[in-house]
Amino acid sequence: MSEQDKYRRDTRNEEQFIKDIQESTEIERKILEKFIKILEQKSSGGKFVIISSGCDNSGRWLPVNQISTRADYRINGKLLEIKFSRPFSKVFHWKVSQIESYIRQNASLLFVNGYDLVKPKYIYLHVIELIALTRKYPKVLYWEKETYEIPANDFDWKDFY
């Protein structure tokens, strides 16, 4: 196994890693569908064109040479990355390399916190807010990866239901 594969899998075995990819991809697809409904309500029924943009949004396991940190989707031409946490996390960790990639791509980030709860919350961060995040929060090692450590209390969470 390559060093990159070890990095991606953390402490998970191959079977668990593949299961997690499939499950996460399905959750992100559901989040996207709900977010589009929120956008449609805000725009009085406006239409949104969604194009898969990341390396793969099917949930299939991909070898290292086929993965990237490209944002997941384009909505009406604008790049969007989707992230989530199942419980409501009071502190969350985003990989430095991913955030820097989203900034280079001029991508926004949709984060749903407490996805498994009855009333999850979300934030939508534009690239300017991602840039500010890189200057405000410390870099720490988490799961042996360089991440930004971010307290949830620093954000104005919106209802995601």
Topology:
Elements: H1 3-9, H2 14-42, E1 50-52, E2 73-75, E3 78-85, E4 91-95, H3 96-105, E5 108-113, E6 121-125, H4 127-136, E7 139-142, E8 145-151, E9 158-159
Helix pairs in contact: 3-4
Query: Strand order within the widest sheet?
Result: 1-2-3-5-6-9
Measured as a percent range, the helix fraction is 25-40%
Provide the succession of SSEs.
Answer: HHEEEEHEEHEEE
User: Roughly what fraction of the amino acids lie in strands?
Assistant: 25-35%
Give the overall average pLDDT: 87
Q: What would you call the shape?
A: globular
Q: Low-confidence runs (pLDDT<50, min 5 residues)?
A: none
- Please, what is the oligomeric state? single chain
Structural class by helix and strand composition: alpha+beta
C-alpha-based Rg, rounded? 16 Å
Q: Count every helix, treating DSSP H or I runs of 4 or more residues as helices.
A: 4
What is the straight-line distance between the termini?
Answer: 41 Å
Can you tell me the number of structural domains?
1
Number of distinct beta strands? 9
Largest sheet: 6 strands, mixed
